[in-house]
Amino acid sequence: MRRHDMDLAELAVRYAREGGASYAEARLHRNYYVAYSLKSGEVEPAETADSYGLGIRVLVEGALAFTSVNLLTRATVRDAVAAAIRRARAASAILRRAVRFSPEKAHQRRWSAPEAKKLRNVDAEEAISLLKDVDRVIATYKAAAKIPQRLLRLAFGVEEKYFVNSEGARVEGRIPRLAYIHYLTALLDGQSAQRFRQEGYSGGWEVLRKIDPMHAAEEDAGILTRILESAQPAPTGTMDVLLGPEISGLASHEACGHPQEADRVLGREGAQAGESYLKPDSLGMRIGSEEANISDDPSIPNSYGFHLYDDEGVEAVKRHLIRSGCIQEYLHNRSTAAEFGLTSNSAARAVSYDREPIVRMANTFVEPGDHTLEELLEGVKVGVYMKSFMEWNIDDKRINQRYVGLEAYLVENGHIKHLVKAPVLEITTHRLWSSLDARGRELVFKAATCGKGDPMQPCPVWTGGPVIRLRNVRVGSR
């Protein structure tokens, strides 16, 4: 960050206070991004973006207003602050309830995710060469089924922020991120199978070893061809179901993380991103079995949703969303925390300088248990092991949901048998977490891009979990 622009951020806060704001903050925010793609072996045009500007919030007479500016001069910053103060004053006249912020420590800190090999030093030739090597493995995979449609993507960027507020906070952060994505379609005798996969981490080019695109490509090419060549009809009826980390992590995000965002709970997100089945007084409510334990933790090293301070300057903490089956904690920013008489748990995030910080997840996951996969399979007379999904959906209030298995197996007498086609789990949130009776030992994360807000804020996150076992749930098929 340029010192001149950091000074302007501090100046914005001073202008706001002089103009009558009881609280003010400014966030200098830069996003550098580049993505390379290969479509069925052909190189696509690269995508690049570099955004840079200042987001400003002011609290005036109980009303909160946000503005942004990307032409950074003393005059433009002064005008932006003045406009925000005018909007806040106008809004204050029709407020039903004044906005308050929770009391928080004013941190002064500089932090970053480690980056051994700078992502800005990775050239197009190196990235495209990697994608071509991966594509070659998929295109030449030896099987009766073929994979003629392949979209491979390597995306990386650096996010830099400088946050300052009128309470004395000064926080500067830097997060490099790297992601690999592929969309594969396999064909055999008029039948098709598709696979979407995303892997991502914070860090430099060195985290490519963790992603291992070559292994991901070989694994998914094998899965798709085996599904088309040998999968049999899925059993239906009431039975035990094992969900792999990809699905347990997705459920933790969609059926726990989103409905426990405090702005949804308070009804503020209904027109933007959805509602919640929970109410402000639902804390402590039983939603699942004793085995239902779900958390969100921004501070996991190398995680895709990594941050050590949020975009209100609050230090990152682990959030215990569900403990022993009971709703324990909502995700808060400073304003929602104040309504609950709490302090913030560092869930305020914005994806760009021209977006207001809103309540977001970071890395949401089912906590691991103490069972091996073999132990989870024991006692399952007839059931299904859904290791990955091909599609999912969930309703607006996060009650009813549906998961369709991609790589899925019949389980008989405690043993994994053959692949089965598209088993379907349609279940309510209450039933899902109440049916959970055992959790595996190994915690596995997947990268995802979480959508929320209007205008939309696509946010990098991890979803994760171990293999989990659900007892006596209904399974259908497509």
Would you write up a description of this structure?
- By secondary structure, the protein is an alpha+beta fold.
- It has three domains: 3-34 and 47-110, PmbA/TldD superfamily (PmbA/TldD fold, 2-Layer Sandwich), CATH 3.30.2290; 112-162 and 171-231, Double Stranded RNA Binding Domain, CATH 3.30.160; 237-477, no CATH class.
- It is built from ten helices and 26 strands.
- The strands form four sheets. Strands 9, 10, 17, 18, 19, 20, 21, 22, 23 and 26 form a ten-stranded mixed beta sheet that branches. Strands 1, 2, 3, 4, 5, 6, 7 and 8 form an eight-stranded mixed beta sheet that branches.
- β24 and β25 form a beta hairpin.
- α3 (124-139) runs parallel beside α5.
- The chain starts with a helix and ends with a strand.
- The model has no long low-confidence stretch (mean pLDDT 97).
